[in-house]
Amino acid sequence: MYASKRTMLLSGMEEAGLKPTEGTGGFFVMADARRLLPLVPQSYLDAAEADERPVDFALCRWLGEKHNIITIPGSPFFGQPDDGELEPPCLIRLAFCKSDEVLERAN
Q1: What digits encode the pLDDT tens for the residues 31-87?
Q2: How far does Cα 91 stand from its chain's mean position?
Q3: Pairs from 54-59 (Cβ < 8 Å, separation ≥ 24)
Q4: How many Cβ atoms are within 10 Å of 99's Cβ, its own excluded?
Q5: In whole angstroms, how large is the CA radius of gyration of the chain?
Q6: Which strand (E) or helix (H) includes residue 34?
Q7: Whole-angstrom Cα distance, residue 55 to residue 47?
Q8: How confident is the model at residue 89 (pLDDT cuts 50, 70, 90)?
Q9: Using the 8-state DSSP alphabet, how is residue 17 labeled?
Q10: What are phi and psi of 22, to 5 degrees?
């Protein structure tokens, strides 16, 4: 039952330009959403910066408020890079424990 839901979500994520991870457990999928950042209005990025939050918070807020797609920022699950290290990917987390109707609308 959930394998088909996961497949449906992964397909939609890839079509949207996201790079999902290949995890095999739980009801969530993480994806690198950096390709979507140019679509996020500057006001959302500025608000995240003012709150000293990574850009994934801006992306998740924008997706929720403007597109009714609720996502979870991935940065709280990982440590922040030390000075001089590469910036971590813009990860977001999506749940596939939804009805097929909801997943189809999201695609």
Answers
A1: 999 999 999 999 999 999 999 998 999 999 999 999 988 999 998 887 666 655 556
A2: 5
A3: 54/80, 54/88, 54/90, 55/90, 56/90, 56/91, 56/92, 59/33, 59/90, 59/92
A4: 9
A5: 14
A6: none
A7: 10
A8: low
A9: T
A10: -105, 35
